[in-house]
Amino acid sequence: MTRITCVHQGFELYGSDRSFIETVRVIRAAWPAAWIDVVLPRSGPIVAPLEAIASRVLIEPLWILRRRELPRLATIGLLTLPFAVGRALRRIRSSDLVYVNTSVVADYLLAARAGGGRSIVHVHEIPEGAVLKALRALIRWSGCGVIFNSRATERAFAMPAHMRARVVYNGIADPGPVKAMTYDGSRPLRLLMLGRISRIKGQDVLVEAIGRLPGAIRDRIEVRIVGGAFADAEREQALVAAIAEAGLAERVTLHPFVADPAPHFLWADVVAVPSCLPESLGRVAIEAMAYGIPPIVSDIGGLPEVVEHGSGGWVVPPGRADRLAEALTAIVARPESWRAFPAAARLRYQTVFGEAASAEAMRDQLLRVLGRRASGTAPGT
Fold first, then answer.
1. Looking at residue 186, what DSSP letter applies?
2. Glycosyl transferase family domain: from which residue to which, for each copy (predicted)?
3. Which residues contact 105 (CB under 8 A, 6 or more apart)?
């Protein structure tokens, strides 16, 4: 029996978590008789959907390189690293294939070098500075096969040619028929922002942009910001305060994280992804396009790979609330100018980011690892 281990750093149901579930679903479809273990650092909302796919879901300590955890990991956390690497190595050696979802799971990448070419890492992040250098070195050391989720991620990591890293866009499950274009200017535009409240996502930029709108335009827009701050209550409170100080409480409402964002997508006319730091791809923008909702995104990271400006959505400079406000003004005032955008967004989703195309490419990369194992060749050759 083929034994496959899938390792994930999260436990919630945000975009990266849903992407992981979809990858495990692809693996199950490709190897229906395989024994599939899923390893998570904590129990949480992600467990239930995984239990329907995997043979077993295991909760085990993982050595995860999260930015807020680095001071602890660099001190007392180092005492646990040898035990974590040993545990990871035992699991790698008992598996035919190990899929590690993101480069921040350090114990599995360190162990992979002695794991006989069984591992593949799927890189979903674009870190900065010293963190990027450390993760790049970690991947090179690991000898893993490498999948990047966008060209932007591939460029950021700049792996040597001999590693033959490949880009596979995340596939998003089809939510069903395209959402009808109903906005004609006779009611407020419904603008949705969905995702974790963080310095990366740009909720503060969106709030500033709404505050900059001319009064006549601001009164014709409704904004939902959906998500939580993930153990950072101060950041969430700061966003609430910023909305109140700008006098936008009637225009901008905050909603808690939900496992199923479908009702929010079905409400929205436009989805905003005003990221301030590089998104490796931009799952929320792809999900919006799957519903036939045009997204307005920042020109940073992988987001310009998702959205074709002036066709199925809009691309604006990152961190520029003034430019975002200008684009929103045009969207509200001239709905006829983007009447064709919903259909174009849906078509781009179907042709580039549909689940079937991604599944085929992902299966090919995983088969390469299994093939190297069978032939005895080294990873990256």
1. S
2. 190-346
3. 7, 9, 62, 63, 64
Give 184-241 pLDDT, tens digit per residue: 999 999 999 999 898 889 999 999 999 999 999 999 999 999 998 766 778 889 999 9
Here the CATH number for the domain that contains residue 51 is: 3.40.50.2000
* C-alpha–C-alpha distance, residues 316 and 358, integer Å: 27
136 and 199 inside one domain: no
Place of tokens 């701050």: 229
- pLDDT, one tens digit per residue, over 240-268 is 999 999 999 999 999 998 889 999 999 99
The SS3 of residue 326 is helix
Element (H, E) at 8: strand 3-8
**What is each CA distance from 37 to 7, 248, 259, 320, in whole angstroms?**
8, 47, 23, 44
**pTM of the entire predicted model:** 0.87
Q: Are 319 and 276 in contact (CB under 8 A)?
A: yes
Number of domains composing the chain: 2
Residues of the domain holding 214: 189-353
Whether residues 346 and 275 fall in one domain: yes
Residues 325 and 268 in one domain: yes
For the chain, how many residues are written? Answer: 381
Bridge partners of residue 57, in order along the sequence: 38
Which residue type, as a one-letter code, is found at position 182? Answer: T
Helix residue spans in 307-354 (DSSP H): 321-333, 341-348
In a domain, 182, yes or no: no
31 plus 106 within the same structural domain = yes
